[in-house]
Every structure is written in structure tokens, then in C-alpha cells.
Amino acid sequence: MYVILVYDIGEKRVGKMLKLCRQYLNWIQNSVFEGGITEVKLKELEFKAKGIMNLEEDSLIIFKSREEKWLEKKIVGLEKNELDSFI
């Protein structure tokens, strides 16, 4: 499946969440990630994220699609992290 993940998290926890999400998905912009992931890996990510989050204050939103081809992505302005560039 293909997901777009967005979080709004307290300043003290944002570094941990960033590090966690980068293990599973591609960072594309502040607090925004995308990429292909299995259902099992997504559940693992959600479980670990809940351990970082304060569920009374923070939020995590996940948009799911079967495949990336079903989404049209348009970038206006600077693309923060080009996914095509490999080092």
C-alpha cells in the first residue's frame, strides 16, 4: 500500500517522531512523509508512534491508497526532498 503520513506533535517529541517515521517512509516536507509500506509495517509504525505521542495533545494522520499511481501529486514551489535522487 502507499501512504502519506502527517503529524502535528509537541516540540519536545518532534525529533523522536521524525527519526521514527524516517525508518519507514520518505520525508518530503516538515512533518510529512510518503511511501510504500506493508500493512504489518504500518501497524508497527503506528504502535511505536503512540509510544512517543501524547494522545491528548498530538495527532497523526495517515492517508492510504492501494498504489502510488492512484494519487496525483503536484508540487508548487520548492520540493524539499526529491525522492528520485539517490546518493
Textual characterization of the structure:
The protein is an alpha+beta fold and 87 residues long. It has a single domain, classed as Alpha-Beta Plaits, CATH 3.30.70.240. 29% of the residues lie in helices and 26% in strands. A 4-stranded antiparallel sheet has the order 2-3-1-4, covered by helices on one side. Strand 2 and strand 3 form a beta hairpin. Helix 1 runs antiparallel to helix 2. The longest helix is centred in the middle third of the chain and has 14 residues. It is globular, with a radius of gyration of 13 Å. The mean pLDDT is 87.
Overall SS class: alpha+beta
Based on CA inertia axes, which overall geometry fits? globular
CATH class: Alpha Beta
- Percent strand equals 25-35%
How many separate domains make up the residues? 1
Summary of the model, kept short:
With 87 residues, this protein is α+β, with helices and mostly antiparallel strands.
